[in-house]
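Q: Predict the assembly, please.
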Amino acid sequence: MTVDLPTPRVGPLQDAAPKPMRLVLNWGRRYSLWVFNFGLACCAIEFIAASMARHDFIRLGVIPFAPGPRQADLMVVSGTVTDKMAPAVRRLYDQMPEPKYVISFGACSNSGGPYWDSYAVTKGVDQLIPVDVYVPGCPPRPEALLHGILRLQDKIAAEQLSTRSYADRRRLAGAVTRPAVQEPGAGATRVPVAPVAPREARS
Amino acid sequence: MAGSKKRGRSLVPGLMKGMATTARTMTRPAHTQQYPDVKPDLPPRSRGVIALLAENCTSCMLCARECPDWCIYIDSHKETIPAGPEGGRDRQQNVLDRFAIDFSLCMYCGICIEVCPFDALFWSPEFEYAELDIRDLLHEKDRLGEWMPTVPPPPALTAGAPEATEVAAANKPARTPRTRTGPAAAGGPDAAATAASPPARPPERPPAADDGTAP
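A: Predicted assembly structure:
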């Protein structure tokens, strides 16, 4: 038997919530990120390294023991997202309760990486789900993931409560369009190339 | 009964062994690195980010063409340097307009740094440039130049290693014309030039003489 429950939202009164309450809520959120590792390739090894004793991101409040996506706040997509895997990524993201955050870890999940011209690879996980922090690297160092987590925590700290869904407020990456390649010479002073003088004139 | 006795006997030394391990570990400090507070000591030649020394770049496009990901964007134009003194002629020079590396695509192979003939690209160990927007991962020329102060100095040469060929060639003393001992010692500048000129090439052997198979 299935029951259709509405997506939980922060109540309408939260808009008028005083600042201390916002601070406390954001403080609670940023230091209890139950993480769910969507490890798809070699970058997942670096994620595991970041979770182990040497780097140990539990120090930052990131807890890697979420039983599943339904108990997780943060999803770390580490590795090559293939078009075959894409529905699963989207499905598991949809199962996460709000507020939910996504870190894209490594070149493959940022934009396809070395496989950007492959027929089978999704050109970045941000085509499927909204991504909060992009960690560059191939693979990134474990410390780079820690830095990405710090960036995310700063972002959460600056968050405003709103009745709207967090995921709705974020831009989907399909909407992220890179600006067109700059026209050569734009912004630079251009000196017209002098026409080549005929041979007799030069000698 | 006998089984439980046996288990009890094996339990005690096992427990002792485990407690000994625990006690040993307790005396050692944790090896956790306190990253945000303490900078990690990265291994030498760490590949964090690619720095650009724009003054050295001649926009020859070798890096952009060798990049396996095609993640380097270069725009340039030619400028004419007018002729200086009398009898000179106008020179043309490439001017770099745009040099961008897309770090969301880069696979950190370092081929661009290897192929750069003018030492304009360098590895920097910095890794703290995660972004909230993927478009910020496209580092333009000025941002790539900002990484330049973080580039470590090149590692010291191995002790006792042979000198690099270009260094040896540069340190070699200039050849002095062999004018002291010849009969042309007093012959003037013409004779000195002939003495310093390389010897004539030895007569070439016919190619068939090398191997005995040719008829």
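Chain A has a mean pLDDT of 79. The beta strands of chain A are 33-39, 62-63, 74-78, 101-105, 133-135.
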